[in-house]
From TrEMBL, chain A:
<feature type="transmembrane region" description="Helical">
    <location>
        <begin position="173"/>
        <end position="193"/>
    </location>
</feature>
<dbReference type="GO" id="GO:0055085">
    <property type="term" value="P:transmembrane transport"/>
</dbReference>
<dbReference type="InterPro" id="IPR051393">
    <property type="entry name" value="ABC_transporter_permease"/>
</dbReference>
<feature type="domain" description="ABC transmembrane type-1">
    <location>
        <begin position="136"/>
        <end position="351"/>
    </location>
</feature>
<keyword id="KW-1133">Transmembrane helix</keyword>
<keyword id="KW-0812">Transmembrane</keyword>
<feature type="transmembrane region" description="Helical">
    <location>
        <begin position="330"/>
        <end position="350"/>
    </location>
</feature>
<keyword id="KW-0472">Membrane</keyword>
<dbReference type="Pfam" id="PF00528">
    <property type="entry name" value="BPD_transp_1"/>
</dbReference>
UniProtKB/TrEMBL annotation, chain B:
<dbReference type="GO" id="GO:1901982">
    <property type="term" value="F:maltose binding"/>
</dbReference>
<dbReference type="Pfam" id="PF13416">
    <property type="entry name" value="SBP_bac_8"/>
</dbReference>
<dbReference type="GO" id="GO:0055052">
    <property type="term" value="C:ATP-binding cassette (ABC) transporter complex, substrate-binding subunit-containing"/>
</dbReference>
<protein>
    <submittedName>
        <fullName>Sugar-binding protein</fullName>
    </submittedName>
</protein>
<keyword id="KW-0732">Signal</keyword>
<feature type="signal peptide">
    <location>
        <begin position="1"/>
        <end position="22"/>
    </location>
</feature>
<comment type="similarity">
    <text>Belongs to the bacterial solute-binding protein 1 family.</text>
</comment>
<dbReference type="InterPro" id="IPR006059">
    <property type="entry name" value="SBP"/>
</dbReference>
<keyword id="KW-0813">Transport</keyword>
């Protein structure tokens, strides 16, 4: 009797888990395994040609890099030639990368970035797929900026609304509202806010500066577009993480705060020695979740900028979808998805390791 | 969807014993959901066809244009294509190559009166037939051009590149307008290749050399580079609104007097005529060097490769190609009827009709976009290159990148052989 009961409970347990787990297997695990397989083939979305195994070539096409040290154009005395705008004139990169038999290994590559060297020379790093590299750096930048700011702001909001004041639920609702609205709707609204000619943001800034502020085309300018998307993303996601922080805050026993008050702790000391240690597990969860969400940057880009202007808002997931679906190159899109998966996995493992319980 | 339609059809059949039981169902997919005028013409054709013979019964399913292509791709992947479907002209070769479409049983003789842009030919065979075409013109106002003493170009003698540049730079000085010209960069997607590809062709470049096939030396050749520099100049000198143009400004900017001229399609012509009346001019495309060109080929009908009712599907398309239906479509939508005989029967395109100039434009200047299955990638790369150049990217590097991307796609698809 004592043996039988847990077993039958097990059976029921498995049965109850069946719908959810079969959905997860069907829509997450199987597609992932397929993506893994596709990334080693030349699979197309539709094609009368048979699919072939191509080994690592999708990955080498994505991540192939080369480098080159170039001299500026020099006059008879060996001084560099300057352009009209005062920049040093270098030979065009396409003279090396297009049909130049002396630089066979750089064929078809594009400049990714360059580092100036002594004597006006520069070291140029080229990439086989400069667009992927741009998407990669944009995504990493997005994660590096959004994750800490979003987590910090969410904690701040959580501390603010974790008080017993009349009407506090109203504030909780207001902060949480953007999370409930679909990201696509939020993106469309923010496109109006950021509009260069008659957008709300320009109007407010113009009003606050008594008309001194020059209107900015926030999403149409390569130097402001990614920042604008970051700001909007932080605003949109902050409420969700605020709720998680709040749940963490409410698990800290009130007796600890009472003890701290008796000891005469200042507010900062209370936070540093009571609140923060109590939020340890919540913090790990939030950092992992935010990082993963930030890596999945897609809808905002798709709705607001489609990767432009001049690739300043390209992201890995956007590129993956664009290649796989719009360009019908399932293999190329899958390769990006696999790279992204490995990146997120290793970063999560590192986060887990660094925040492990050392006691 | 199809099943639901079949069920409905079955229900109707059992309900009314007077219906003919021998008719075989044909499914027809159309991209124009939400457009009541188009629907009423199309259902008119379908009812006439269903009533005209006892073998076939066509059932219509409509899709919104934004998701139509994706619906077709998804249906093809799951083997559920309809018997008859409509296809955007330049995309037809890709669908033919992928075997979504099969050659029509319609002969050259059947389509000899049709505008060339309305016939989808690939690999020497006719795959699709359009009941109408669209055309693009430079919308301008006589009074404005005369005020600035600009020559009014004609179909026989369009503006040269120099005249065109002079015109927009002169109009730039006019403080009544925010911009001298609006190209409509707010319209993302196929508009770029449709509206600006012919300008590139007029310069002497193209998306690719379809015969070889390669984009090298064509999309990044000297002529294309010159086009690119000219294109960038339009934006650096603020002669046209850029890629972040507001969609509403695109719709009403010319009518509201924000823009002096506008590069726009005949679908926008009636609204402009209403506003400016006789003052309005539809100017032909300027000649950038290699002849004046505008885009050809709109939506066309084809038969799916998996259809078991090839004969019925072909019969329907041949039935729909009658002049009276072409004229009905044109009257309902303002689009250009596919034959001269049908044009005579329409309000707007008959001789002296308000839009008859568009029929002449199509007849004289229309040029097809590159006819190749590689088109669906080439058009995306072209759109991206034009946007990037407009936003200040280096012309040569950007066109090189687009060229490489197109060639890479050719290579991955074994040149679409």
């Amino acid at each position: 009797m004592t043996d039988g009961k847990p077993k039958s409970q097990n059976k029921v347990g498995w049965l109850m888990a069946l719908p959810a787990s079969s959905l997860i297997i069907l829509f997450l695990i199987v597609p992932f395994l397929l993506a893994f397989w596709f990334s080693f083939t030349n699979q197309r979305l539709v094609s009368p040609n048979p699919t072939e195994f191509v080994g690592w070539s999708n990955f080498s096409d994505l991540m192939g890099v080369g480098s080159l040290t170039i001299d500026p154009k020099r006059d008879a005395e060996g001084k560099p030639v300057y352009k009209a705008n005062g920049d040093i004139q270098y030979p065009r990169m396409r003279t090396f990368t297009r049909n130049n038999p002396d630089y066979e290994h750089l064929q078809g590559m594009r400049e990714w970035f360059s580092i100036p060297l002594s004597n006006d020379r520069k070291w140029v790093v080229l990439a086989k797929d400069a667009l992927f590299m741009k998407a990669l750096t944009n995504t990493l930048l997005f994660v590096a900026i959004v994750a800490p700011i979003q987590a910090g702001l969410a904690l701040l909001l959580a501390l603010l609304i974790n008080q017993k004041l009349p009407g506090i639920n109203l504030f909780r609702t207001i902060y949480f509202m953007p999370v409930v609205i679909s990201i696509v709707v939020v993106s469309i609204l923010w496109r109006f806010i950021y509009d260069g000619e008659n957008g709300l943001l320009n109007a407010i800034l113009g009003f606050l500066s008594f008309g001194l502020f020059e209107p900015v085309d926030w999403l149409g300018n390569p130097s402001t577009a990614l920042g604008s998307i970051m700001a909007m993303s932080i605003w949109q996601g902050v409420g969700f993480h605020m709720i998680i922080w709040l749940s963490g805050l409410q698990t800290i026993p009130g007796s600890l705060y009472e003890a701290a008050a008796l000891e005469g702790a200042k507010r900062w000391q209370v936070f540093r020695y009571v609140t923060w240690p109590g939020l340890r597990n919540t913090a790990v969860l939030i950092m992992v979740v935010i990082t993963m969400q930030a890596f999945a940057l897609f809808a905002q880009v798709d709705v607001m900028t489609r990767g432009g202007p001049v690739d300043s808002t390209q992201s890995l997931v956007f590129q993956s979808v664009q290649r796989g679906y719009e360009k019908q190159d399932i293999a190329g899109g899958s390769a990006i998805a696999v790279v992204l998966f490995l990146m997120v996995l290793s970063i999560s493992l590192i986060q887990r390791y660094m925040s492990r319980d050392r006691s | 969807m199809k099943r639901a339609m079949n069920l409905m059809a079955a229900a109707i059949l059992t309900a009314s014993s007077s219906m003919v039981f021998a008719q075989t169902d044909l499914s027809l997919w159309y991209h124009g959901a939400g457009n009541d005028k188009e629907k009423s013409v199309l259902t008119g054709i379908i009812n006439d066809f269903n009533g005209s013979q006892d073998d076939w019964k066509v059932n219509l399913a409509e899709f919104p244009q934004e998701s139509y292509n994706e619906s077709v791709v998804a249906a093809a992947l799951s083997g559920k294509l309809p018997d008859i479907l409509d296809v955007d002209g330049p995309l037809m070769p890709n669908w033919a190559w992928s075997k979504y479409l099969t050659p029509l049983e319609i002969t050259d003789e059947d389509v000899k009166d049709f505008l060339p842009g309305t016939i989808g030919r690939y690999d020497g065979k006719i795959y699709s037939v359009g009941l109408w075409d669209a055309a693009v013109a430079l919308f301008a106002r006589k009074s404005v051009l005369e005020k600035h003493e600009l020559r009014i170009p004609t179909l026989d003698k369009p503006w040269s590149l120099d005249e065109f540049n002079t015109a927009i730079n002169t109009l730039k000085m006019d403080k009544d307008f925010e911009y001298p010209l609006d190209l409509g960069l707010a319209w993302k997607g196929e508009w770029y290749a449709y509206a600006f590809g012919p300008l590139l062709q007029s310069w002497g470049g193209d998306l690719m050399d379809v015969e070889k096939p390669t984009a090298e030396g064509v999309l990044n050749g000297d002529e294309a580079m010159a086009f690119g520099e000219w294109w960038q100049n339009l934006f650096t000198k603020k002669l046209v609104p850029g890629t972040s143009q507001d969609g509403a400004d695109r719709e009403t900017g010319f009518l509201d007097g924000k823009y002096a001229m506008q590069w726009n399609g005949n679908w926008a012509a009636l609204a402009a005529l209403e506003k400016f009346g006789d003052d309005l001019l539809f100017l032909p495309a300027p000649d950038m060097g290699k002849g004046p060109k505008i885009g050809a080929a709109s939506w066309q009908f084809g038969v799916s490769g998996s259809s078991k009712n090839q004969k019925g599907a072909n019969d329907f398309i041949r039935f729909a190609m009658q002049d009276k239906y072409l004229a009905n479509f044109s009257n309902a939508t303002g689009l250009i009827p596919a034959t001269a005989a049908a044009a005579k029967m329409t309000e707007n395109y008959k001789e002296g009709g308000k839009l008859s100039v568009f029929y002449a434009l199509t007849d004289k200047q229309a040029t097809k976009r590159a006819v190749t299955p590689a088109y669906n990638v080439a058009t995306l790369e072209f759109e991206k290159a034009l946007s990037d150049i407009a936003n200040g990217a280096d012309v040569a590097d950007t066109l090189d990148a687009a060229t490489d991307a197109i060639n890479k796609d050719l290579e991955k698809n074994k040149n679409y052989k």
